[in-house]
Amino acid sequence: MPRPRQNRDVEPGGPLGAFIRRSGYLRKWLILGISIGVIAGLGAVTFYLALDYTGQFLLGYVGGYQIPKPVGDGGQPGSPGFVRPWAIPLVTFGGALVSAWIVARFAPEAEGHGTDSAIEAVHTDPRTIRGRTIVVKTIASALTIGSGGSGGREGPAAQISAGFGSLMTRWLNLSDDDGRIAVSLGIGSGIGAIFGAPLGGAVLAASIVYREDFDYKVLVPGFITSATAFSVFGSILGFEPLFGYVASDFRFHQPAILIWFVVLGIVAAAFGYLYARIFYGTVSVTAKLPGNKVIKPAVGGLLVGLLALAIPQVLASGYGWAQKASDTSTLLSIPLWIVLLLPLAKIIATSLSIGTGGSGGIFGPGVVIGAFVGAAIWRLGHDIGLPGLPASPGLFVVVGMMACFGSVAHAPLAVMIMVAEMTGSFSVIPCALVAVGIAYLLISRTPVSIYKAQRLNRDSAGAQRVADSAHEVPRPRDDFTG
């Protein structure tokens, strides 16, 4: 006779989940941190390759235009001009159209830049990121940016790893506190991996979810996760800094030069403020316009393509053009009016690409906008003949990256470290401290942030969770079809 089935209590999350939950701090975050880091690194590699191949086909083969690439991506100089100018708006329109259709059809939450939804998951319920969102975000963002839309590759990379942190929280039945750490680690390690900035990624994980606070509980696990993600990504695609070594030969020895960085900090704050206001203004206006969520991003893509015919630097991520802006001869060869308009043009292009509902990151464009701000100030000072100007614009480009986006993202330390890693330029820190400090102090006097889902601090976030605890939110299914 068959033996009767015994009734056994099965713990939620299975034996592995029970083992993780019973583990001490060190063992728990070694296991979870390394796991998230491996997925973050592989996810960053997957999206990088998807974006590279999509861009080569859509812009390169169909559009007949090769965008310049930074040193870490191969350093190709790009096309000297458009072979088929009429094809560029059609490519940006078509890529945005297909991308928007995929998002609307399969995962509407993948619309936009994605980092805000991951931050919101940290604050509300770390289990809410669906598995299919990861896949849809990867495909849709590759189409948007690969066709020339102005967006960054860090948003999709962050959502892939943040989504995995959310899946782990569900599968292993982690506590809400551990789930929030896991999703935060995903955000920071995904961005750090694809930018080749592990220390910056770890600090970003601990700071990006708040405007005026820092989550120390995330920092140490962040070291493990970011180092793992960086190692995986670099082992496959190389460890060269994204922009090479831009201002590594700079040595601080003339304190008078800091006057320039007071000016740069003020101007960077102004453009960071404009970036957030124009971007979310576009989001608001788009919501009121007639048309559905497929047509609006497609029209935005068409407008970006038309703008690129006059200012090609706005196409795609813009990292290659930021690299070119750091070179004296290249920067001087660009007409002055274009150099001065580049920061505003990139803001408009990003707003049209992502603010209308397209899929892509806003971190990367923010860094490029800052690079163009620094280049514009250096170029204007050079042409006027102002004294005390460095011989190369590289220093201004690097510090502009740090000040512009570090201030409006309310993550000045994290962005400063990340850009220093991306450019191999830790020697610029004395100048950066002045510019970033001034830019952040100015932005902090306003209610503006590029990430709407950020909470003010840990106290306000905790109070809101307590207030919302009475309202139960249905939790997603544990598969990729839910």
Write the SSE topology:
Elements (H helix, E strand, L loop, with lengths): L13 H9 L2 H38 L24 H20 L8 H9 L7 H16 L7 H18 L4 H20 L2 H10 L8 H22 L20 H31 L6 H16 L8 H7 L2 H6 L2 H20 L7 H22 L9 H15 L3 H12 L5 H15 L14 H11 L14
Written description of the protein model:
It is a multi-pass membrane protein. This protein has 482 residues and is mostly helical. The chain has two domains: 227 residues, Clc chloride channel, CATH 1.10.3080.10; 189 residues, Clc chloride channel, CATH 1.10.3080. The protein is built from 19 helices and no strands. Helix 2 packs across helix 7, helix 6 runs antiparallel to helix 7 and helix 11 packs antiparallel against helix 14. The radius of gyration is 22 Å and the shape is globular. The N terminus and C terminus are likely disordered.
Count of spatially separate domains: 2
How far from one another are the termini? 41 Å
Let me know the CATH homologous superfamily of the largest domain. Answer: Clc chloride channel
Low-pLDDT runs: 1-9, 476-482
SSE order: HHHHHHHHHHHHHHHHHHH
Query: Which sheet architecture does the biggest sheet show?
Result: none
Number of strands: 0
DSSP helix fraction: 55-70%
What's the mean pLDDT score?
A: 91
Number of helices: 19
Keywords: Chloride, Chloride channel, Ion channel, Ion transport, Membrane, Transmembrane, Transmembrane helix, Transport
Subcellular location: Membrane
Pfam family, one: Voltage_CLC
Protein name: Chloride channel protein
